[in-house]
Design a protein that fits this description.
Elements: E1 6-11, E2 18-23, H1 27-35, E3 42-46, H2 53-60, E4 64-68, H3 84-96, H4 108-140, H5 153-161, H6 167-199, H7 204-210, H8 218-228, H9 238-242, E5 247-249, E6 258-261, H10 267-277, H11 288-295, H12 299-321, H13 326-345
Parallel strand pairs: 3-4
Antiparallel strand pairs: 1-2, 5-6
Helix pairs in contact: 1-2, 4-6, 4-8, 7-8, 7-13, 8-10, 10-13, 12-13
């Protein structure tokens, strides 16, 4: 699948005959070609930037379609020739042997919510880079802020008070400050949209339940609910592997070697859990913010969230007593936190 072309190949499972065609990337054209093949057909293509529109169209047309996870496609180590035709042949053979590891195809509503949280994630990165440009430009010219925490109202007043004599530096500084202001405005606008959708959508029950855990705000809970989608496809043990929070391993015979975490799967959800895990290091108490989230959740979710908060803080204390490196300990807490999120998300409504 490409933006301007589709390389299609079909295998007749009875006669072994191959059907090859170069098509335009139109769902109607691709479906017409598939329906013209002899007998019923099953289809697969790699997940990529072209999205899930073709898969939804095929499902509507009654055609079995699986969107293959590119990282799970088995390729021969000695295969050094890669073309669209060979890739299509490989996919067809894997589908024929039922060896395709399919990704979950979200609904249109779910994909729209995912676009929203990923736009918020992009703005977060843009804002961080814009702030770095401002602070580093000031540092080069000897301006350092000592009035407390940066990027507050007081800090903004200090930024506006700085003047440069050279027109070039002044123009660059004004442009960088404008970029920060625009990014903040975009972030706040997206936060409002996320808060509105988290309060009244199909993701509201899951969001409110996972927010019973410390470190998971409405923004984080909604992002986790959207990114993971169908929580029932996981277990408490497998969700950590899906998010890339389990150690790599290279074992053979009597030797066993483990390394850093795999960092596979959804990087956005993994980052959110890593950040949330740090909140469990401090002494556990139910403050006003956490209590307000509990008030929106069912009693069973509040009880389970309380048990999870206690256990995760206790795990932090044990790691600290063993002088475990704090980043390693936090990753382990994040892995267990993912299991507690799964436990809450799969609770009956």
């Amino acid at each position: 699948m490409h933006a301007r072309s589709v390389a299609a190949l079909a295998i007749d499972t009875t006669t072994g005959e191959l059907f090859k065609q170069r098509l335009v990337p139109s769902s109607e054209v691709v479906i017409d070609w598939i329906q013209a093949l002899p007998g019923p057909a099953a289809v697969t293509y790699e997940a990529g930037p072209t999205g899930f529109g073709l898969a939804r169209a095929m499902t509507t047309a009654g055609i079995r379609c699986e969107v293959a996870a590119p990282s799970k496609i088995t390729r021969a180590a000695g295969d050094r020739v890669k073309t669209d035709a060979r890739d299509a042949m490989l996919l067809a053979r894997l589908l024929r042997m039922d060896e395709i590891v399919a990704v979950r195809v979200p609904t249109i509503t779910q994909e729209a919510a995912r676009d929203l949280v990923r736009a918020r994630e992009d703005v977060r990165g843009d804002l961080m880079r814009a702030r770095h440009r401002v602070s580093k430009l000031l540092l080069r010219h000897g301006h350092v802020y000592y009035g407390g925490k940066a990027w507050t109202a007081k800090h903004a007043t200090w930024l506006r008070s700085i003047r440069f004599a050279e027109s070039g530096t002044r123009a660059a500084y004004d442009a960088d400050r404008e970029a920060v202001d625009f990014a903040v405005a975009r972030r706040d606008r997206l936060d409002q949209a996320i808060a509105a959708m988290a309060a009244d959508s199909e993701f509201t029950p899951v969001t409110r339940r996972v927010c019973c855990l410390r470190g998971i705000s409405t923004l984080t809970g909604f992002a986790l609910a959207v990114e993971l989608g169908d929580w029932d496809r996981f277990t408490g043990a497998s969700i950590g592997a899906y998010l890339g929070l389990v150690p790599t391993e290279h074992s053979s015979g009597e030797s066993r070697r483990q390394g850093g975490i795999t960092k596979t799967g959804n990087s956005h959800a993994r980052r959110l859990l890593i950040e949330a895990a740090w909140h469990h290091k401090a002494q556990y108490r139910v403050g006003a913010v956490l209590q307000a989230r509990w008030d929106q959740a069912p009693p069973d979710a509040r009880a389970r969230g309380h048990a999870g908060n206690q256990r995760l803080h206790h795990r932090w204390l044990r790691y600290a007593a063993r002088n475990k490196k704090h980043t390693v300990a936090n990753t382990a807490i994040a892995r267990e936190l993912a299991g507690w999120c799964w436990s809450l998300a799969t609770m009956p409504d």
